[in-house]
Amino acid sequence: MMTPMVRIATLGILAAASLTAAPVFYRDVLPILQRNCQSCHRAGEIGPMPLMTYKDARPWAKAIRESVVTRRMPPWHADAASGHFRNDPSLTAKQIATIRAWVDAGAPEGDARQSPPKADFADGWRIGKPDVVFEMPKAYQVPASGVIEYTDIIIPTGFTEDKWVEKVEIRPGNRAVVHHISMYVREPGVEWLRRYPLGEYFLQDGRGLTGRETRPWETRFSGYAPGAPPETLPPGYARLFKAGSDLVLEIHYTTNGKPADDRSRVGLVFAKQPPTKRVLTLNARNLDLAIPPGASNHAVDGATTLHADAELTLLYPHMHVRGKAMEMRAVYPTGEREVLLRVPRYDFNWQIRYEPLKPKPLPKGTRIEATGYFDNSANNRFNPDPKAEVRWGDQSWEEMMVGFFEVAVDVRADVKQLLNEGPKFVN
After folding, report:
1. What is this structure's pTM?
2. Which of 288, 351, 285, 348 minimizes the C-alpha distance to 320?
3. Distance in angstroms (rounded) separating the CA atoms of residues 152 and 202
4. What domains sit in the chain, N to C, each tagged with a CATH number?
């Protein structure tokens, strides 16, 4: 018969063994996948394979281990020394150790009854069920080959009252041929694009510096690019969609050797309470960039000065395939300088938006600076032509240097004051 002391010692040994037992999929690994991976790794999303079930994940176990141990996944490129962000999907050291131990133990399945509740993804939408969905009225036919200039379409919304939007998601109808999409709002009374018909695809004429007409600076509403999550604003913050406004989509299609078609969609979720802050997208960029042939670390600067008080809510670096790194800074009216974001290893394949932990005050007179670094050398395996001087252009073999950033202002503020009466810009 087991004595009390022996019984206690035995229970202690069993407890210690349970604590050191190999992780199993349902109890230990699936919760990590749900929180950090499944938004992309599920049917219809950008992830190359779903990771919803054990059957999905088991064949990829070693690849998952390699990706998380090297921190290639989840994708995140901000230098932690320059700040922390609320949308950082990076795994903790404990989570990485759990996945590594699970794979090293042979990726055991475990008991399905220990599985967490299934993650709820509404009809594929990452923002939940939209309050309204706008879809291209007809499919765009993408040829098998050739270069396609940026293509626009104007979609009337039918809004009879102002709408405050707190979530925006642009979903390509065919990810294989949609490189990226920019969404703009054309307000009533604005003459921009009035000569083009509603609901028809067109290429803008009079094509200026970058191939598109000048447009009011505050009209950019949202965008889609590979790896970029949909926009979700915190409570009290929203974008204004005025009554009678039209939605303008600007799409960059790429060919892939096969004819294809696309009908992309936009989903909006309206604010449930009147917001106190209006969110706008601005940028610091350089349209006159000229990257010398063979340059391995060419710096290009851009800046924008704010002429009214605002709050910083988001940072979003954008370059093309020669983009190597970017730093964004604030220079305050006092002369003090602060690094807002440093991306030491920029990756064109992942257009990541960086959301500060909380809105950062930007007093009137603050200058937002961006410096992009480009590798136009033969050492850049993505470089299409190291012998070319590279200038600004829409296509991926050309370049852009844009430090997008979003600011919030009081809903009663005159937004025209923010950039000194709202100058026109070409994006």
Report:
1. 0.82
2. 348
3. 5
4. 4-114 (no CATH), 123-273 (2.60.120), 276-427 (2.60.120.230)
